[in-house]
From TrEMBL:
It comes from Staphylococcus cohnii subsp. cohnii. The chain crosses the membrane at residues 25-45, 66-87, 93-111, 131-155. Pfam families: YdjM. This is Metal-dependent hydrolase. It comes from the Bacteria. Keywords: Membrane, Transmembrane, Transmembrane helix.
Length: 166
């Protein structure tokens, strides 16, 4: 999937987390930022990706060590990040937005013909029975739909709070 689709999905994850935990403005902005970053983070193994271009050296190292769509797209990576965040006592709403952001990335990539090495280091490619081309019509429509979903959830919780304060 394109960076746009991953970003939109990150926005939706952030919006849903905010809606669920009813966080204040500062926390909400942090949640949105973390969700978007983590929804793109897995592609650090891809030097041409949004995050890869920003962190060229790290991206290069990850690619040399693990290859593309392997370690950073696996349950192992997700577990390690979850354990680390848990140990540094990350507040639950931040933890949830990061993990769901990472998970959303893996799920979206499982919808592409290339799939992901979900069970890395077991070299098994996992993908959904139905896959879509990256940058194709479905990918682009998905980016649009996810962004609209995110905006809807954000506005809904904003207006709810507004009415509650009267
Ligand atoms: Zn990816």
């Amino acid at each position: 999937m394109t960076g746009k689709t991953h970003t939109s999905c990150g926005l939706l994850v952030g919006a849903l987390t905010i809606e669920y935990y009813q966080t204040d403005l500062f926390t909400s902005i942090t949640i949105m930022t973390l969700a978007v970053i983590s929804s793109l983070l897995s592609d650090i193994c891809h030097t041409q990706s949004k995050v890869g271009r920003r962190f060229k050296v790290l991206s290069f190292l990850v690619r040399i060590l693990f290859g593309h769509r392997t370690f950073t797209h696996s349950l192992l990576f997700l577990s390690i990040i979850s354990i680390l965040l848990y140990f540094i006592q990350t507040p639950e709403y931040y933890l949830v937005s990061i993990i769901l952001g990472l998970l959303s990335h893996v799920i979206l990539d499982m919808l592409t013909p290339r799939g992901v090495k979900l069970l890395y280091p077991i070299p098994l490619t996992i993908k959904f029975p139905l896959v879509f081309k990256t940058g194709g019509l479905v990918d682009l429509s998905l980016a649009g739909a996810l962004s609209i979903g995110a905006l809807y959830v954000l506005f809904k919780s904003f207006f709810n709070n507004l009415f509650l304060s009267f």
